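Lab meeting minutes (informal)
Scribe: AK
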Amino acid sequence: MPVAPEPAGPVAGCGDSVGRVASTAKIEAFLAERRNLILAGIRRDGRPQLSPNWFHWDGQRFYVSTLRGRAKFTIFRRDPRAQLLVDDSTGFRAVILPATVEIREDLAAELPRFRAIREKYGVAVPDEAEQLRGLTEEGRVLLAITPDGPPPSWICWGLD
């Protein structure tokens, strides 16, 4: 079984194995693919809590839908610090970055972002009234995740 190579480029900055910085277009293209975003938060006892999530990236923020009953809802209500990983385990490509999470509970205002997540992953999107009703009944909220720095400050490999 192949072992993922360690990134040989710079530790900080979206570089590949020879140190070139990945273009914003290549980062955007990678984030547009159907991948999981691994979201890490900090439990009350200091241990990390990780969860795989579908996401939408709009060029400024990542968006993740979650339920009020999930651990990540409780964690990010208490402490908005996060770490994100989007990876391609077969192509040895990855993006890792620190970020800050904001919980958005105005579901009607966030319908376009909930819709974007569903569309990205090929899930049918009901009309707005039905979608809003379903999100409300499920107890959904939207996590708006803002990177702590621009893409050149992220850790990336395999994108160039």
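Next up, CB showed the second protein from the same session:
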Amino acid sequence: MSFVSPYPPRKPLAIRLLKWLALFVLIVLLLLWRTHGGLVFACAMWALAFFFMHVLPPRLKSLTVAWLAVLFGMLCNATVTVANDGFMPVRGFPSGFKPLFPIWIPTRPADHLVALADQHSLSYFSMGDMFIISGVLLWCVGPWLLGLLRAQMRRPPGRNC
């Protein structure tokens, strides 16, 4: 008699360690980019962030709209930061304001893709940030909403009122 586990098989230790190492390096690159700015750190961080999106758990990838929203938001933010040499222009900085990290710079006439940059009208968020936030919120409440929708669809027609 053989025992069959109800749980899916675990991935090999080397793959799990590689994912944790990638996450650690991603965090280090994010901190280096945020504290120093620059195109090299921005490109390395965004490249690893896109790779990390590829290795997300299937339960997150199965929520396609949320996954695509986060991916599109990351693409918008990566595009504007890489186009501006690793810095994020901010439209509407108050005069004399010193940002927490040097990657945020006031917009200049020479900046590219300012429409994708952080905006005063969006509470200093960018369009990419809005997509990322909406995708993450969908990841958090998406399964609950899908369950609610499925339960509603299973109800007999006369009990909806």
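CB comment: The helical segments are 13-36, 39-54, 58-61, 64-83, 127-154.
No objections, moving on.
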